[in-house]
Amino acid sequence: MSESSTPRLPRLGVRGWLRWVWRQLTSMRVALMLLLALAIAALPGSVLPQRPQDPGEVVRYLEENPTWGEILDRLGFFDVFSSVWFSAIYLLLFISLIGCILPRTKVHFKALRMQPPKPPRRFDRFRARQKFEVAAQPQEVATVANRILGRKYRSYVVEEESAWAVSGERGYLRETGNLLFHLALLGVLVAMAASHLLTYRGQALVLEGRGFANSVVDYDTFEAGPWVDTEELSPFSFVLERFESEFTADAEARDFEATVSVTHPDGAVETQSIRVNHPMNLGGTKVFLSGNGYAPNVTVRNAEGEVAFSGSVPFLPQDEVYTSPGVIKVPDMGGEEQIGLAGSFLPTAELRTEGARSIHPQPHAPLLVLTLWAGDLGLDSGIPQNVYELDARNMVQISQDGEPMESGAVPSTITAELGEVVEMPGEYGTIEFNGVDRFVALDVRHDPAIFWVLITSLAAFLGLIGSLFTPRRRVWLRATRTDDGRTLVEVAGLTRHEDMGLEPEIMQVITELKAQLSQDRDGDEK
Amino acid sequence: MISEAIVTYSNASDMLIYGAMAAYAVALIAFSIDLARLADRSSGNNRKLAGVGQAVTWVGFLMHGVAVLLRGLAVSRVPWANMYEFAITATLIAVAVYLGLQVLRDMRVLGAPVTGIVLLILGAAVTLFYVDPRDLVPALQNYWLIIHVSIATISVGVLTVAFLISVLQLIVDKHDRVRAAEDKGAASTQGASAAATDASGAATLASDSTVSAEAVSATATTGVETISSAQAGTDAAPAKGKRTWQRILKHVGTPQQLEGAAFRLNAIGFVLWTFTLIAGAIWAEEAWGRFWGWDPKEVWTFIIWVVYAAYLHARATRGWAGARAAWFAIIGYACIIFNYTIVNVFFNSIHAYSGIG
Question: pTM to 2 decimals?
Answer without folding.
Answer: 0.83
